[in-house]
Design a protein that fits this description.
By secondary structure, the chain is an alpha+beta fold. The protein has two helices and six strands, in the order ααββββββ. The protein has one domain. Strands 1, 2, 3, 4, 5 and 6 form a six-stranded antiparallel sheet that branches. The protein is elongated and about 65 Å long.
Length: 121
């Protein structure tokens, strides 16, 4: 086999291994980044339980997301579960094709002492 073919196989093989490594680590990297830079991103403290991102299916799923009030002690919004799924191919044409969104959310309004629980399917 010619040397340029070997180099081509090594390059493509390395790219494939790199893509799979990123796919395996992206959830933890994203969760760490979001929790570290929460104040910069949304202006409030937030914590989340699990975050799962699948770059091949175009899905994002997280559980136990807590967004706190500006005082960083009282909860403002609690999202028990959130799931978002979209088709990847339309993104190449700059279109968004959402297949499914599901969330279970609780919003606490401190001024009126009312607890809302919203379930949207």
């Amino acid at each position: 086999m010619k040397s340029w073919v070997k180099v081509l196989f090594i390059v493509f093989g390395s790219i494939i291994v790199l893509v799979f490594a990123i796919a395996l680590c992206i959830s933890q990297i994203a969760k760490s980044y979001i929790e570290k830079h929460d104040k910069e991103l949304i202006g409030r403290k937030l914590r989340m339980g699990n975050l799962k991102i699948n770059i091949f299916e175009g899905s994002v799923h997280f559980e136990r997301l807590k967004i706190y009030e500006k005082d960083d002690t009282n909860k403002f919004v609690t999202i028990d579960s959130f799931y978002f799924n979209m088709n990847i191919m339309p993104l190449l044409k700059q279109k968004l094709d959402v297949q499914r969104i599901f969330w279970v959310v609780q919003i606490l309004l401190l001024r009126k002492r009312i607890l809302f629980s919203i379930l949207a399917i």
